[in-house]
Amino acid sequence: MVCTNAEILAVILRLINANEEWNATGTGSYTATKDALQSRTYSILLLGAGLAGGEEADLREFVKTDFPGLKLVDHFGGGSGLLFAEIYQALA
Amino acid sequence: MAQTVFHSADTRGPASHGWLESFHTFSFAKYYNPERMNFGALRVLNDDDIAGGRGFGEHPHDNMEIITIPFEGALKHEDSMGNEAVVHAGEIQVMSAGTGIYHKEFNANPDERVKLLQIWLFPNQRNVTPRYDQQSFDLDANINELVQILSPDADDAGVWIHQNAWFSLGKFTAEKELTYKIKGAGNGVYVFALKGTVTAGGQDLQERDAVGIWDTTEFKIKTAPGTQVLLMEVPMCI
After folding, report:
1. Could you tell me if B111 and B197 lie in one domain?
2. Closest-CA residue in chain B for A79?
3. By residue range, what is the domain housing residue A63?
4. CB-based contact, A48 to chain B, within 8 Å
5. CA dist A65 → A38, A60, A68, B24, B42 (Å)
6. What residues have CB less than 8 Å from B143, skipping those under 6 apart?
7. Among the ranges given (A60-64, A75-79, B123-127, B175-179), the one the predictor scored with the smallest mean pLDDT
8. pTM, whole model, 2 decimals?
9. Could you give the number of structural domains in chain B?
10. What residues pair up with B167 in beta bridges, in sequence order?
C-alpha cells in the first residue's frame, strides 16, 4: 500500500496483516512504491492518500505498463470500513 | 426510461456489537456483498444505533466525504484538525477527509442512545485539504416539503461537499405528490425511507427501505401522513 500519511499507513497495514492469509507492506512515496514493485511480486497495490496528482498518474501508468497483472485499487480510507471490501473485490 | 434498484430494509448487512447496532446498506467492515458495493458515488449508508457514552475511538479517514445525520440524540466529534463539536438531531455534519484526518465520535449522552445515519461519498477530487462543517436544519418549519441539507455549492442551502451531490430531507403530515427534478446531469437519486411509507419512482417503500433511481431527469414521490424521507442525489459515474 502507498500512503504518505505514515500513521494512517500503519493502521491499514496492521488491519491487513491481522488476516493470516494476507501480507502487506507499505510505502510512503512514489519512488519507494516503484522500488517496492520491482523488488518482489504483489497481487494488489492499494493507492491511499497523499501522492501529488502527477505522481499518482505516473504511478498508474507505470503499473499499467510494467505490471499489467497487478491490480491497482483506490483505497478510500475509513479504517476497516472499506478496506476489506476493496481487497475482497480485487481478489475475486 | 428510468432504471431503479430496490433495497429492502431486511437485505442490509447487520452488525451487532452490543454498544453498536448497525445496518449496512452497502458492503462495509465485515459485511461484504459484491452486489451491494455502492450506488454511484454513494459508497456507505450505515444506520447506526449507539449506546450511551459509547462510540468509535480515534480512527483515520482519507479521500471520502463523510456525512453524519443524527435523528435521535447527539454525537460528539473530535478530530486531528482541532475541531470539537456536538452534532444533534436536526443537524448535519460533514467531514472532507482529503489527504487524511483522524477523528473520534462518541454518543454525547451517557444515558440514552444516539441514532444516526453515516453516509460516505466518493469525492470528485482526491487529496483535498481536510475540512469540517456542520449546520442545522428545521424540518418542522418546512412540513410537507423537501429541505435541501447538502449541495456542491458553499453558497447554496445546507452544507457543501467535494462532490456533485444534493441531499434533501422531508417530513410529511399529509398525502402529497412531488416531482423531484434531478439537478446534475448523469446523477441518480437514492431514496431512503426514514419513517413511515413513501412511494418513489413507482416503488413502494416501508420504513428503512430504499430505492435507487437513475437514467431519468425527474421522478414522482408520493408521501403519506408520517412519512420522513432522505433523498441523496449523486453522480452515477465515479
Report:
1. no
2. B60
3. 34-42+52-73
4. yes
5. 13, 9, 6, 37, 31
6. B171, B172, B173
7. A75-79
8. 0.92
9. 2
10. B150, B232
